[in-house]
């Protein structure tokens, strides 16, 4: 991974959160749209699995940063993106039994997902404002 101005910020992490919540929102909206479809099985992306993989990726990223800061150089073996594994939960779906597909649960999950998305976008916006202030020397 090439070091960039954003590498040391939370922006790449927030980008993954926004991408996950967007994908999950589409799945949950599909569940609501197909609520009355006979034989339809509710689908969901696992937030717990995503959060665990994100946590592991953040720890790996910290280790790479500490190692690079320790010797003052960035090695060629650091080409891999530790956040790449976070994309995996978006590729697999967890299927629930048909009896668990109720409107209230789907709307509650959709609402929680929307709140997580809003938080990530707000934090990302604040990061960009801080960067803009630092660049324009207004900080």
Protein architecture, described:
This protein is mainly α and 139 residues long. It has one domain (11-129). Helices cover 58% and strands 3% of the residues. The chain contains three helices and two strands; from the N terminus they run H-E-H-E-H. The protein has helices spanning 11-33, 47-71, 103-135, and strands at residues 43-44, 94-95. It has a two-stranded antiparallel ribbon. The protein is elongated and about 60 Å long.
Give a concise summary.
The chain is 58% helix and 3% strand. The protein has 139 residues and is mostly helical.
Overall form: elongated
The run of helices and strands is HEHEH
What's the story with the biggest beta sheet? 2 strands, antiparallel
What radius of gyration results from the CA coordinates? 19 Å
Give the helix/strand class.
mainly alpha
What descriptors fit this protein?
139 residues; 58% helix; mainly alpha; two-stranded antiparallel ribbon; 3 helices
Chain-wise SSE layout:
Blueprint: H1 11-33, E1 43-44, H2 47-71, E2 94-95, H3 103-135
Antiparallel strand pairs: 1-2
Helix pairs in contact: 1-3
């Amino acid at each position: 991974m090439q070091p960039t101005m954003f590498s040391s910020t939370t922006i790449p992490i927030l980008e993954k959160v926004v991408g996950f919540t967007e994908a999950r929102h589409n799945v949950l909206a599909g569940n609501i749209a197909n609520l009355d479809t006979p034989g339809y099985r509710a689908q969901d992306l696992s937030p717990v699995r995503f959060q665990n993989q994100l946590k592991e990726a953040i720890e790996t990223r910290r280790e790479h940063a500490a190692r690079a800061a320790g010797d003052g150089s960035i090695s060629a073996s650091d080409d891999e993106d530790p956040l790449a594994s976070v994309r995996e939960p978006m590729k697999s779906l967890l299927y629930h039994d048909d009896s668990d597909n109720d409107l209230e649960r789907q709307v509650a999950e959709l609402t929680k997902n929307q709140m997580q998305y809003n938080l990530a976008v707000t934090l990302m916006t604040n990061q960009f404002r801080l960067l803009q202030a630092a660049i324009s020397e207004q900080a």
